[in-house]
TrEMBL record:
<keyword id="KW-0813">Transport</keyword>
<feature type="transmembrane region" description="Helical">
    <location>
        <begin position="69"/>
        <end position="89"/>
    </location>
</feature>
<dbReference type="Pfam" id="PF00571">
    <property type="entry name" value="CBS"/>
</dbReference>
<feature type="domain" description="CBS">
    <location>
        <begin position="755"/>
        <end position="814"/>
    </location>
</feature>
<keyword id="KW-0967">Endosome</keyword>
<feature type="transmembrane region" description="Helical">
    <location>
        <begin position="573"/>
        <end position="598"/>
    </location>
</feature>
<protein>
    <recommendedName>
        <fullName>Chloride channel protein</fullName>
    </recommendedName>
</protein>
<keyword id="KW-0325">Glycoprotein</keyword>
<keyword id="KW-0406">Ion transport</keyword>
<keyword id="KW-0812">Transmembrane</keyword>
<dbReference type="Pfam" id="PF00654">
    <property type="entry name" value="Voltage_CLC"/>
</dbReference>
<keyword id="KW-0458">Lysosome</keyword>
<keyword id="KW-0050">Antiport</keyword>
<feature type="transmembrane region" description="Helical">
    <location>
        <begin position="199"/>
        <end position="220"/>
    </location>
</feature>
<feature type="transmembrane region" description="Helical">
    <location>
        <begin position="256"/>
        <end position="280"/>
    </location>
</feature>
<keyword id="KW-0067">ATP-binding</keyword>
<feature type="domain" description="CBS">
    <location>
        <begin position="658"/>
        <end position="724"/>
    </location>
</feature>
Length: 818
C-alpha cells in the first residue's frame, strides 16, 4: 500500500498546483464525496503561504491573525444563532401548544402558565386556572363545564392540531423538502464527506425553524431536540461562507459543522458537555483536538444565550430539570437493569418497525418529493439533470444506492392500516391522517394530551408538598380517618392507581404513534418521544417498587436499608433511568447519553444507575442488530456512509472487490501524452466514472497519477476560453514537459496541474480489512489497485458498501438457520 507518486512528490505536496489555479478545479458536484486527503493538502498549502507572508508587512500579519481567529469567530456566531433560535422555538412551541386548549385574554402572546403568573385568584390545588385564561368552550359557548364544553374543547384541539400539521407539511413540501425529518442521519453522512447541496442552506434553516414549531405544537409524537441539531448545523454552514478558510475547503467546513452539532445538543438538552460528547461519539467523522475545543466553546456560547433568554421561566436551560435528594441503594440496580432490558427491546423493536414502515413508504411508486435522492458519490451527471427537471421526483438509478432487501412486518391497530394507502403518494394526506389519529386518541388521556416535554417533567419530578399531580395522591391514616397527602411514604391512593392505568394506555399509544410519526414529511425528532416512553415505563416500575417497599418493608431486600416511613424509593429516578435506557436502545448512544441525562439532573450520585441501564440497553439492542436508528435510516436511504463502529471480519482481498471484474469492460484509463482533446472528451462522454487513472502508455500500464472527471472538463473549457490554438486535435499531456510534436501540430494542452501525483494505491493481495480501514480513517473516495506498479483496477466507496451488503446477505441465511 502506498501513495503512488513516491518520495519526490511527497516532499512538495500532493497536487502540482499552477501559480494561477483554474477556477472550479477542486470543487465537487452535488451528491458526491469529498476527497479528504486533497482538502487537507489544500489547507496545509494555504497555511504555509500565510505563514511565509505574515512577516512581509503589517497588513499580511493582520491577515494571518484574522485567519487564526476565524475558526473561533465562526463557532461563536454559530453558538449565538443556535441559542437564539432555540429560545425562539421553545417560546413559540409552548405558546402554540397551549393555543389548542385556550387563549389568554389579558395578553394574547402569553401561554397558559405565563397567563396565570400574575393572577391573584389562583388556588394551590388549581394553580393552572385563572380568570385571564379562557378555554375555547368558555369563549364560544360561555361555559367551562359539562358535556358541551368538553366536546367543544375536543373539537378545537383536533382543529388546531390538524391546522398546525397541515401548515407544516405544506411549507416543507413547497419551500424546503430537506427540512423534514430529524436531519441527524443526513448530518452524519455530510460530516463523513458527502455533498448534499441545499440541505444546510438558508431556506432549509428558515422553513425548518418555522415548521418545527408547528410540528411540535400539532401534538404529533415527535420532539424538537433532534431537529435542533440540524438547525445549528445550518447556522454553522451559513456562517462558514463568510470566511474563505472554510467556504473554500469542504474538510474545514466539516469541522465547523461538528462544533455546530455540539451547540445543537447543548441548547436541546441544556447539556453543553453532553453536546460535545454527542458530536464526538455519534455524528462526527473527523474530530481533531482543535475541533474538540471549538465544539466546547460553541456549546458554551449557545447554552449561555439560551440561559439569557430563559424560555421556560425557571432559570434553567430545559423544561424538565430536576434534582433528587434521596440516595439510591445497591438492590435497586436490579430494577434499573430491567429497565435497561426494556429499553434495549424497545429500541430493537422500534428500529425494525419504523424501518419497515419507511421502506413501505419508499417502495411505493409515489413520492411527489423525496427525503433525499438515492444517489451516491459517483452519480452520473444525467441523474442530476433528471433531478433538476423532474419536479423533485424520486430517482434511484439502477445500481446506485445500497439498500437491503430485509422485509419486516408490523401489526398495528386497524385505524392505522389506511395509512399504507397514502404513505408515499400523498405525503400531505399521510401527515394529516397521523395528526388526526394522534389528536383523537390523545385528548381523552391527560398524559397524552399534554406536551411531551411537560409529561417528562411530571414523570421526572419527585412527589412533594408543592406537587398537585395525580401521581402524588397518596393515602394517609390520621385519627382513624383516611386523608390524602403528597407524602410518597404512604400507600397509593385512587389517584395514583388511576394515573397508573392512564400511563399504561399512554405507553401503548406512544409506542405505536412514534413508529408511524418518525419519518413523516415534517421536522420530527426522536429524542423526546423515546425518553417519554422510557419515563412512563420507569415511573410505573418506580411506583411499583415504592409500594412493594411500603407493604413489605420486613423483607430481607428492604429491611436493611428501608425503615418504616422512610423515603427509600424515588419513582422519579426510575423515570429518568428508563428515559435514558429507551433513548440508548434506539440510538445506541452510551457515554454522551449518560452525560446528557446527568446534566439534566445535576447530581453525580446517579451516574452508576444511568450507566448500568444504558449499557444494558445497548447490549440487549445489539443482540438484535448493531445498527442504531440513524445508521438504519442511512442504510435505508442508500447514503455512502462507512460506519466506523462496524467490524470487518471477512477474508476477502482487494482483487475480489475492485472494478472491473472479469466480465466487465476494461478499465477506462488515460495515457500521459498520447491523447487528443477529442479523444479525451470522447472517453468522458462515453463513461460515467468519477475519475480516471493516468498511465505511461497502453503497453506498460504503469501508474502516473489520477485525474478527476470534473477537473478535466473544467480545465478543457477554461483552456478554450483563455488559450488560443486549442483545437479538437490538440495533444493532451500530463507530463512536466510537452512531447515532441510535428511542426504543423496545434498547440498542446497541459493538464498536469489537475493530476493527483500520489493517489492511494494497494496491491491486489491487500486484505479488504485493511482497505476498509483505510477508507474509514482517511475518508478516501477511491483507491487504485496495482500489481508490480501496473494498474489493475479501482475500488470506490460504493464498491466497498456493495461488498459489505453482499457479505451481509450471504451471512443472513446462515444466522437465520442457527
Amino acid at each position: 500500500m502506498s501513495n503512488g507518486g513516491g518520495a519526490a512528490s511527497s516532499t512538495t505536496h500532493l497536487l502540482d498546483f499552477l501559480e494561477e489555479p483554474i477556477p472550479g478545479v477542486g470543487t465537487y458536484d452535488d451528491f458526491h464525496t469529498i476527497d479528504w486527503v486533497r482538502e487537507k493538502c489544500k489547507d496545509r498549502e494555504r497555511h504555509r503561504k500565510i505563514n511565509s507572508k505574515k512577516k512581509e508587512s503589517a497588513w499580511e500579519f493582520t491577515k494571518s491573525l484574522y485567519d487564526a481567529w476565524s475558526g473561533w469567530l465562526v463557532v461563536t456566531l454559530t453558538g449565538l444563532a443556535s441559542g437564539a433560535l432555540a429560545g425562539l422555538i421553545d417560546i413559540a412551541a409552548d405558546w402554540m401548544n397551549d393555543l389548542k386548549e385556550g387563549v389568554c385574554l389579558s395578553a394574547m402572546w402569553f401561554n397558559h402558565e405565563q397567563c396565570c403568573w400574575t393572577s391573584n385568584e389562583t388556588t394551590f390545588a388549581e394553580r393552572d386556572k385563572c380568570p385571564q385564561w379562557k378555554s375555547w368552550a368558555e369563549l364560544i359557548l360561555g361555559q367551562a363545564e359539562g358535556p358541551g364544553s368538553y366536546i367543544m374543547n375536543y373539537f378545537m384541539y383536533i382543529y388546531w392540531a390538524l391546522s398546525f400539521a397541515f401548515l407544516a407539511v405544506c411549507l416543507v413540501k413547497v419551500f424546503a423538502p430537506y427540512a423534514c425529518g430529524s436531519g441527524i442521519p443526513e448530518i452524519k453522512t455530510i460530516l463523513s464527506g458527502f455533498i448534499i447541496r441545499g440541505y444546510l442552506g438558508k431556506w432549509t434553516l428558515m422553513i425548518k425553524t418555522i415548521t418545527l414549531v408547528l410540528a411540535v405544537a400539532s401534538g404529533l409524537s415527535l420532539g424538537k431536540e433532534g431537529p435542533l441539531v440540524h438547525v445549528a448545523c445550518c447556522c454553522g454552514n451559513i456562517f462558514s461562507y463568510l470566511f474563505p478558510k472554510y467556504s473554500k475547503n469542504e474538510a474545514k467546513k466539516r469541522e465547523v459543522l461538528s462544533a455546530a452539532s455540539a451547540a445543537g445538543v447543548s441548547v436541546a438538552f441544556g447539556a453543553p458537555i453532553g453536546g460535545v460528547l454527542f458530536s464526538l461519539e455519534e455524528v462526527s467523522y473527523y474530530f481533531p483536538l482543535k475541533t474538540l475545543w471549538r465544539s466546547f466553546f460553541a456549546a458554551l456560547v449557545a447554552a449561555f444565550v439560551l440561559r439569557s433568554i430563559n424560555p421556560f421561566g425557571n432559570s434553567r436551560l430545559v423544561l424538565f430539570y430536576v434534582e433528587y435528594h434521596t440516595p439510591w441503594y445497591l438492590f435497586e440496580l436490579i430494577p434499573f437493569i430491567l429497565l435497561g432490558v426494556f429499553g434495549g427491546l424497545w429500541g430493537a423493536f422500534f428500529i425494525r418497525a419504523n424501518i419497515a414502515w419507511c421502506r413501505r413508504r419508499k417502495s411505493t411508486r409515489f413520492g411527489k418529493y423525496p427525503l433525499i435522492l438515492h444517489l451516491n458519490c459517483i452519480m452520473p451527471p444525467r441523474c442530476l439533470d433528471l433531478w433538476l427537471t423532474s419536479n423533485r421526483l424520486s430517482v434511484n438509478p439502477a445500481g446506485l444506492g445500497v439498500v437491503s432487501d430485509y422485509v419486516y412486518s408490523v401489526y398495528v391497530f386497524s385505524s392505522l392500516t389506511v395509512l399504507s394507502l397514502f404513505a408515499g403518494k400523498y405525503p400531505v394526506l399521510e401527515v394529516i391522517l397521523v395528526a388526526a389519529i394522534t389528536a383523537v386518541v390523545a385528548f381523552p388521556n391527560p398524559y397524552t394530551r399534554q406536551n411531551t416535554s411537560e409529561l417528562i417533567k411530571e414523570l421526572f419530578t419527585d412527589c412533594g408538598p408543592l406537587e398537585s399531580s395525580q401521581l402524588c395522591k397518596y393515602r394517609s391514616q390520621m385519627n382513624g380517618s383516611t386523608a390524602f397527602t403528597d407524602n410518597p411514604n404512604q400507600p397509593a391512593g385512587p389517584g395514583v392507581y388511576s394515573a397508573m392505568w392512564q400511563l399504561c394506555l399512554a405507553l401503548i399509544f406512544k409506542i405505536i404513534m412514534t413508529i408511524f410519526t418518525f419519518g413523516l414529511k415534517v421536522p420530527s425528532g426522536l429524542f423526546i418521544p423515546s425518553m417519554a416512553i422510557g419515563a412512563i415505563a420507569g415511573r410505573i416500575v418506580g411506583i411499583a417498587m415504592e409500594q412493594l417497599a411500603y407493604y413489605h418493608h420486613d423483607w430481607f431486600l428492604f429491611k436493611e436499608w428501608c425503615e418504616v416511613g422512610a423515603d427509600c424509593i424515588t419513582p422519579g429516578l426510575y423515570a429518568m433511568v428508563g428515559a435514558a435506557a429507551c433513548l440508548g436502545g434506539v440510538t445506541r448512544m452510551t457515554v454522551s447519553l449518560v452525560v446528557i441525562v446527568f446534566e439534566l439532573t445535576g447530581g453525580l450520585e446517579y451516574i452508576v444507575p444511568l450507566m448500568a441501564a444504558v449499557m444494558t440497553s445497548k447490549w440487549v439492542g445489539d443482540a438484535f442488530g448493531r445498527e442504531g436508528i440513524y445508521e438504519a435510516h442511512i442504510r435505508l436511504n442508500g447514503y455512502p456512509f462507512l460506519d466506523a463502529k462496524e467490524e470487518f471480519t471477512h477474508t476477502t482481498l482487494a482483487r475480489d472487490v475492485m472494478r472491473p471484474r472479469s466480465s466487465d469492460p476494461p478499465l477506462a484509463v488515460l495515457t500521459q501524452d498520447d491523447l487528443t482533446v477529442e479523444e479525451l472528451q470522447g472517453i468522458i462522454n462515453e463513461t460515467s466514472y468519477n475519475g480516471f487513472p493516468v498511465i505511461v502508455s497502453k503497453e506498460s500500464q504503469r501508474l502516473v497519477g489520477f485525474a478527476l472527471r470534473r477537473d478535466i472538463t473544467i480545465a478543457i473549457e477554461n483552456a478554450r476560453r483563455k488559450q488560443e490554438g486549442i483545437m479538437f486535435n490538440s495533444r493532451v499531456y500530463f507530463t512536466q514537459h510537452a512531447p515532441t510534436l510535428p511542426a504543423d501540430s496545434p498547440r498542446p494542452l497541459k493538464l498536469r496541474s489537475i493530476l493527483d501525483m500520489s493517489p492511494f494505491t494497494v496491491t491486489d493481495h491487500t486484505p479488504m480489512e485493511i482497505v476498509v480501514d483505510i477508507f474509514r480513517k482517511l475518508g478516501l473516495r477511491q483507491c487504485l489497485v496495482t500489481h508490480n506498479g501496473n494498474v489493475l483496477g479501482i475500488i470506490t466507496k460504493k464498491n466497498i458498501l456493495e461488498h459489505l451488503e453482499e457479505l451481509k446477505q450471504q451471512t443472513k441465511p446462515l444466522s437465520d438457520g442457527i
